[in-house]
Amino acid sequence: MTYQSAIRAADQAIEPNAERWSGIGAEAVARMRLQNRFRTGLDIARYTAGILRADMAAYDADPAAYTQSLGAWHGFIAQQQVISMRKHFGSTRRRYVYLSGWMVAALRSDFGPLPDQSMHEKTAVPALIEEIYTFLKQADARELGMMFRALDKARAAGNAAEARAIEDRIDAHESHVVPIIADIDAGFGNAEATYLLAKKMIEAGACALQIENQVSDEKQCGHQDGKVTVPHEDFLAKIRACRHAFLELGVDDGIIVARTDSLGAGLTKQIALSRTPGDLADQYNGFLDCEPVTSLDAIRGDVLIERDGALMRPKRLASNLFQFRPGTGEDRVVLDCISALQHGADLLWIETEKPHIEQIAGMVDRIRAVVPDAKLVYNNSPSFNWTLNFRQQVYDAWAKSGRDVAAYERDALMSVIYDGTELAQEADERIRRFQRDASARAGIFHHLITLPTYHTAALSTDLLARDYFGEAGMLGYVAGVQRREIRDGIACVRHQNMAGSDVGDDHKEYFSGDAALKAGGAHNTMNQFA
Fold first, then answer.
1. Helices and strands (H and E) in the chain: how many
2. What is the CA radius of gyration of the chain?
3. What is the CB neighbour count within 10 angstroms for residue 171?
4. Which one is predicted more confidently, 318 or 365?
């Protein structure tokens, strides 16, 4: 809808009631409608699902067209990310927001900071989705409001050409509302619980749900020990639950990201129920660490399975969990991914212990041999020591090629003494190219950093506290924050405007005309930052 057509539509709604609706202006209504393009979370989910689907098709045509996101734990953080995308790159194209269950647990739970073990309130996840989209919609309203003010100024000056140009910019306005990939953990319960939570998340606006194959009540962070996976049928039931939720709510293009933690998970809570030799359950059980049963005399409440015609006893730990054979992680990952894609998932997530392109590519090559268009979402995790990992990768590559590495101590490569070396420079270049190279080689459609703003908030606060409470005093804030905001063009330097004060003033004028008491007059100190 163009600006002028929006005015005409508003006028048609007002005209039959013109006598009773005195003071209601069609242009004001049109502006408010354009500033509130998305009426419900389902409107957002359908709109953003279309974006994500188009981006997936673009990646299939060209792996250089990969996508990215940063994790956000508050609506304001997500809003500033998207505003920065627009500021620096002119568009949000192929850039999303990630909602991390880890950060919800650590930062948004009523219980206080928690580890990533699904102990936080599951309602906190859809609440954060709704909060993020409230802030992104507000960014639309703010930006359009500034254009409306510029339009009024051009008209008042009699500059018709400038007014037409501004209307063109209004018509071409790109929304700050971008896709959210939202973490539903292991589903917070059984398949019905997963379905109910998925509905809440979709109704809040999520177009993409990421679900993992861990046991709900034993769920661990993907980069911690003690991970316990479930048989495939249990996981596939939850994938189907998510799909039913999308379809019930009319988000037919909704995206399911199936995450496997099998690479680092050596435990299972259940023996899968196998009905025919070679079925998924039989394959799952085939990875169990077992010992042959030579006598029934020693059997005391044990579970026995048949393997190649022999009776076997899966090894059970004191925790009552069963363990997989060492070295089976990659095989289990491949089976997890293929089965997930064949039963309704759209994208894959393979949680790894390090950012190593060839390790990821080796698994993806095997998956794509069965499902050629398999695509990954990859966690560029802050849990990895990127500097050390890549310096060691360069060290190993040089050593393998016969290059002299005597000047370097492999286990100490994180040291600052190596920062200016050729090895460190090559490692940094590999880090810089990682996303591009991994998308081309390893089928990674979407790169995200789960917890970046957790770390940036801690770092920036540390720097401010160091300076402000130290010798710099107020200069610590002025030089380290405000001056940089002004010179770098950070919109938040005008924090009243960012919080919606000017939009509120516009509404006051719509409602009260010349009698409106506005906050943005000559004595508003924000004018110092105009």
1. 19, 14
2. 28
3. 14
4. 365
- 501-528 residue pLDDT tens: 889 888 988 888 888 788 777 778 888 8
Rounded distance, CA 299 to CA 305, Å? 13
Provide the pLDDT for residue 256.
Answer: 98
Rounded-to-integer distance, Cα 129 and Cα 103, Å = 13
Q: Parallel, antiparallel, or unpaired: how do β-strands 305-307 and 228-229 relate?
A: unpaired
| Greatest CA separation for the chain | 99
Beta strands across the sheet bearing 228-229: 228-229, 267-268, 322-323
242 close to 195: Cβ distance less than 8 angstroms: yes
| SS3 labels along 104-116 | HHHHCCCCCCCCC
User: Across the strands, what pairs with 378?
Assistant: 447
200 Rama class: left (phi>0) / alpha (psi -120 to 50) / beta: alpha
Query: Three-class SS of residue 406?
Result: coil
Catalytic residue among 221, 242, 290, 337: 221
pTM (2 d.p.): 0.94
Q: Is 221 a catalytic residue?
A: yes
- What tens digit of pLDDT does each residue of 97-112 get? 999 999 999 999 999 9
